[in-house]
Specification:
Layout lengths: L8 E2 H13 L6 H5 L1 H10 L10 H20 L5 E3 L7 E3 L1 E2 L13 E6 L5 H8 L2 E7 L3 H11 L20 E4 L8 H9 L15 H11 L3 E7 L1 H4 L4 H13 L3 E8 L9 E8 L26 H4 L6
Parallel strand pairs: 1-4, 5-6, 5-7, 7-8
Antiparallel strand pairs: 2-3, 8-10, 9-10
Helix pairs in contact: 1-3
């Protein structure tokens, strides 16, 4: 029996040491090394899940490393470990979350994935609503660093390079997909530079179809998508019609949408379109039952700007 008062091990330390260990293995490919931070940090928080680039060889090596790490920490009186009572029987660790601002929940009501995650604003909301994030993706270097500092999980990179079938099963898909190809400022800038915008922007404009493919393959119960309000009117509403047709007519989700001003919650005028959909085969719902609030509930404490911005950044 392990003493419950023994100190927990640090998640950051374990992630760093395990990534370093795997990088020293000659059989690990260059492509796998590129995503090792994501693979290891995802696996440590969800050891029963299969994630992209987690080959059997890497998974077995992770298990061997953790088992040796356990033995060493137990000898030194540093580890408090538990075993998951659910199938499949799997070793899990009781981590010290290194003062993470938003550590993963110990219990949850549903699972979700966080695509085009930025620094994790959507994840915070869904965690507070009782969700457990099982996969995240973001390609901006500095956003990924901030995300990891917030949640202890390093996002995967370019979603176009991810095998969609290897993304963990989930209940809700969340995505704030790139808005520059559709925003008023983005379209104006691209026009001035003679560049394509909307779906004709092959770098960012086509990323919606990555979402569509994940929905088709993984078939989550629900999704929540966010973008700029100009998405609705872009290209004489043709762009939004392509999206609506894909989600409702082709994939069969029941969907509703609304433009909401974030200024009702925070001191910033920020209008966005939110699209929420459910799989009618898993969730019985009519379109009019999908309510997207236009403002906070009664009693909401509207924050002042001075309460949001820190006087001294860490």
């Amino acid at each position: 029996m392990i003493n419950n008062e023994l100190k927990k091990i640090g998640l950051k330390r374990t992630t760093h040491e395990l990534v370093s260990h795997l990088c020293d293995q000659k059989w690990v490919s260059e492509d796998e090394i590129t995503e090792l931070d994501a693979v290891v940090s995802h696996w440590l928080q969800n050891p029963v899940s299969t994630v992209p680039f987690l080959t059997n060889s890497i998974k077995n090596e992770c298990n061997r490393f953790v088992n040796k790490f356990n033995e060493k920490q137990i000898e030194n009186g540093l580890l408090n470990c538990v075993r998951d009572p659910h199938e499949p029987y799997q070793l899990t660790l009781n981590f010290l979350f290194d003062d993470l601002p938003f550590p993963p929940p110990l219990a949850w009501d549903f699972t979700f994935i966080d695509l085009f995650a930025g620094i994790g604003g959507i994840r915070i909301a869904f965690q507070e609503a009782g969700g457990k994030c099982v996969f995240t993706s973001e390609w901006d270097k500095f956003a990924k660093q901030t995300y990891e500092a917030n949640f202890g999980e390093h996002p995967y990179g370019d979603i176009r390079k991810i095998n969609k079938s290897e993304i963990p099963d989930h209940d809700v898909l969340c995505a704030g997909f790139p808005c520059q190809p559709f925003s008023l400022a983005g379209v104006s800038k691209k026009n001035s530079l003679g560049r394509k915008h909307g779906f004709e922007d092959k770098t960012q404009g086509t990323l919606f179809f990555e979402i569509k493919e994940i929905l088709r393959i993984k078939r989550p119960k629900a999704f929540m998508l966010e973008n700029v309000k100009n998405l609705v009117s872009h290209d004489k509403r043709k762009t939004f019609e392509v999206i609506r047709h894909a989600l409702e007519d082709q994939l069969g989700y029941v969907m509703n949408w609304k433009i909401v001003d974030g200024g009702r919650w925070v001191p910033q005028h920020r209008e966005r379109i939110f699209m929420v959909g459910y799989d009618p085969k898993q969730i019985s719902v009519d379109k009019q039952e999908i309510i997207i609030p236009e403002g906070p509930d009664d009693g909401y404490a509207y924050p002042e700007l001075k309460s949001i911005i820190k006087k001294k950044a860490a």
